[in-house]
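Morning F.,

Quick status update on the modeling queue. The single chain you submitted on Monday has been processed. Sequence for confirmation:
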Amino acid sequence: MKGTYANNSLAEASLNTNELQVTVNGTPQRARAGEPLLEVINRAGLEIPQVCYHPQLGPIQTCDTCLVEVNGELVRSCGTPVTEGLSVRTETEAARRSRAAAFDKILGNHLLYCTVCDNNNGNCVVHNTTALLRVEHQVTPYHPKPYPKDESNPFYRYDPDQCILCGRCVEACQNLQVNETLTINWEDPNPRVLWDGGRPIDESSCVSCGHCVTVCPCNALMEKSMLGEAGLMTDLPLPIFNSAVDLVKAAEPSVGYGPILRLSDTEHAMREESIKRTKTVCTYCGVGCSFEVWTKDRHILKVEPTHGPANGVSTCIKGKFGWDYVNSDRRVTTPLIREGNTFREASWDEALSYIARRMTEIKAAHGPDALAFIASSKCTNEESWLMQKLARSVIGTNNMDNCSRYCQSPATMGLWRTVGYGGDSGSISDIEQAGLVIGIGTNTAESHPVLATRVKRSHKLRGQRLIVADLREHEMAQRADLFVRPNPGTDFVWLSAVARFILDEGLEDKEFLARWVNDLDEFRASIEEYTLERAEEITGISQDVLRQIAHEIVNADGTCIMWAMGVTQQCGGSETSTAISNLLLVTGNYMRPGAGSYPLRGHNNVQGASDMGAMPNFVGGYQSINDEGVRAKFAAKWGTELPTNKGLDNHEMVHGIHAGTIKAVYLKGEEMGLVDSNINYVDQAFEMLEFFVVQEVFFSRTAEFADVVLPASPSLEKDGTFTNTERRIQRLYRALEPLGQSKPDWEIIQAVANALGAGWNYQHPSEIMDEIASLVPLYAGVTYERLEGFKSLQWPVLPDGSDTPLLFTEGFPFPDGKARLYPAQFIGRFEPLDEEYDLHLNNGRMLEHFHEGNMTYKSPGITHKVPGMFIEVSEELARERGLENGRFVRLVSRHGAIKGRVLVSGRVFGKQVYVPMNTQEAPHMVNRLTGSHTDLSTHTPAYKDTAVRLEVLPDMGDSPLPRWNHRYGQPTPQRGVEVERKWRRADYVFPGHLPGRMQLARHVAPELIGGDD
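Structure tokens below.
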């Protein structure tokens, strides 16, 4: 096996061995071998221009404004890697003149009208460099480009006349996001940025991730939500605005740029009084992107990622642009109480009194276990904590769960069995460092897009190997070095066969197993039947391919396995998750960077909701409710005894309602009426409840069944913390005041508890976190001070604040410190295909929408891209059944039926159909088709185990995926901005070789030209 087992301190030590010394302006500076020289100069506090450089993009080398002399030669400092003994001078006359000349050429591409520019926010690189160089007049005249603005995309626009051709956007698209849409046509007489080689943005492969807009150093790429909103004088009618621009430009020859920039600085300072910048954490998937949200009153100007620990400058379409729901006119803003078949508005006092009275009556008549509570994976840690505290401490029941039951509980079970912690074993950066990444049942590029960019980047630029096992040929499958389509529900078999082959061939990591792992003999016996021959018969994967997978894992310098709902939402989801961890243990892929298990969490805080004890059998930190010592610790803190019996999970609650044992449910922030399996059965259960409280931002499908609807606030209207898929705890801050009478969930839960006589008195979520830290060892050192700003901690967090980015560096959390190979078993499909139900139903998320779409359908731009659900069929099935795009069909399962339009696609194979889970119409939700069978160990619904038949209907409509969806685009991959093509242009001259530099000097501050030579 390649690699070694290392902890963070060893990794840091290896960095120290790369340290060396360079001399900058006569002063020794410490540096790291190979890093850009410009980074050393920046750390030294020296101000030199750097228009195209961005630390997260690396050297682009298009602008030539960072020129310095190294050992007497003029070089681009961004593109010069550090080596021992470099002698650097930044202030020679040649360097200064060349930097000024290079920037003057840039100004020839850009109309400088900062005072009336929406991007005059203090972070415009062109404005700031003009000021830094004290440019008064430009020599190179401005030349407009012969292209119109492209305003076709619903979220941003491109203005070629303002584009300086720095290439940042291209580099970000090609090598950070790796969507590979943007290029620059350097050979054209008038170069510009191109989408798919010259298509309108909205008809290209652009996924609206926003990377290009974020890294643009000027106003060439801007969010449409900024236009006419950000500046004090930018909402002028177009003729007046153009006149204002002309006025600014007319003044430049006589007064110079100095007074104009001072005026724009004044305007920028005045903006700061009205624009608020608030750090928050994305409320969509589990990657945990953090950024600043810019607001002006309640208008969201933009989302600005800078240096989030999980995402850097990266976002996806939802995190960058999907915030319209916060100000939607469909928000619930006052409590609602049912009267017959309608709802009326009520005061908070009336609603709380009603809830307290009905809960008290039901508890008195039927006992505390007649009530059930469901927390939200969209809400904060503090709010999940209070929800389970309300259930246990105030009501006295362990009937408590959250939506991890629908997706990630089997992964957690598989990891508990084998390595002891139910979370990612490392960080997203470890996935990027791995020699081999395997994705099983995860459409990562659509479900976890920012995390996928790290894999795509490493795969493209570093040669990382990628294997994907899935039913659909989604983007990650298309990019993979090896893509396999196992028969549905058979991943356990091929994983076990690969593990057996490795053991049979003596390829296992013997040293690792001997030192760190128990139960090898029992495990070897448990997989005895999974020969390559049998695996090929069951899975459809050839023996040669299985051997290749085994050798790829053995030979890789670290293997990370990512998996998601394609694995967990099966009757054997826990068993397959266990098999994944077993395979990693056999090959020594724990306890080291760039290796390990990564069950990708679906919601922004599904990890945190479980960490907080919003589960039927655990209190916070996965401490068992059966442990007397645990109950005593909580009872001492809370002043109440905790119930001892295991509660019901989500799935059992629905059965309990049908059985008549569950009389009341309090649910917050979960669209259970759409996302639970077999929702026909769930709807019937909701109708049977004696009392139902739903706490929501919108009047959701689930709220239609409620007796009381409480208006909650979304993440931008509250403080708190989220915990992402890599166990990273991050703070979010209130950016907006709650709309109407809505309240943050923690305030509502406290109000309900106090109406029931609890006497809680939390003044701020930080106080709730202090309580969590005192009772949950995994969070022992978590404080709001340690999470200030963009700081984060990855659990376990010791009392002194030390966190654990990489798990298991000193052993596994079992009594003997060793992991366990667990003898799991294969559990086949509950609904195999037959003559009547002859198609396999697959379902999942889409890039544009999140889950059922309650938030994203409030965004006109996102809905423009994907207006609704569709039924994706293979080309083979389309030929067989006479189907075409837009044809209406009905899917019928043993549990229900839905109607929708066909999308014919090469992504789906054979007799399989795919239906995304997002829809605005409850009757057509895919979970009308799914059944009530579950993973045997965790009761996670087996959404992916459904057989259906297809009925062709006479109706015909438009294609359900409009032509402006990115999936029709044609990307243009290249190795980045390809600056060498610019250098080969006939009109390009390296600035150090430009003639007439003394003429240029008259237009730049003299002291910036005179140098030290």
